Amino acid sequence: MGERAGYRRSAGSARGEARRRELLDRVTDDLGVNGLVDFSLRRAARAAGTTHKVLLYHFDGPEDLLTQAVLQLRERRISRSMAAAAEALAGPTLAARVQAIWPILIGEESWVLDQAIGLAMYDPARYAELARNASKQYLPSLFSLCPEHWPDDRKLEVAEMILGTLRGFLVEWRTSGDGPGIQAGFNALVRALDREEAAP
């Protein structure tokens, strides 16, 4: 009963699911370039090369489509971040890994994902999931960056600290543009992570 109607319609066959993924990829690409402002089924249909009726067959309305596209855009960002962190394993400290993901977090589609959080704050009745899902998506990756020998509760605490701090830096980046100030704060985070990793 809890499944969305669009998913029930498109999940009946491998072909239907493949078509749904193809449409979502195209809408996500458009979102990454043009942002959330003026997002509509008409714009999404144009980007996907189809009609709004086809989109409504595969998705449960414009809010559902927008949410799924934001989630996919965020997953792309996380994948690139984790790839950058993996390359940093040559200097295998938590601080080095966090330093490696920061350029990804402030690059390319960061402004669109910041818009998504703003939309969730502005209209939580419709878009609260955009914010709640952000934490659900990022925490496992940040958790995985922590030293393997740490107990899970310590990993979660530090992952939460990193997420909250980086989110604050991203808001500051978007609102003030104070690059030197943000860098100074980021340097302090790196020192804090070095101390945390050195602690017993």
Automatic annotation (TrEMBL):
Domain HTH tetR-type: start-end pairs: 17-77
Portion annotated as DNA-binding: 40-59
Keywords of the record: DNA-binding
Superkingdom in the source lineage: Bacteria
Gene3D superfamilies, per database record: Tetracycline Repressor, domain 2
Protein name in UniProt: HTH tetR-type domain-containing protein
Organism: Kribbella orskensis
Lineage: Bacteria, Bacillati, Actinomycetota, Actinomycetes, Propionibacteriales
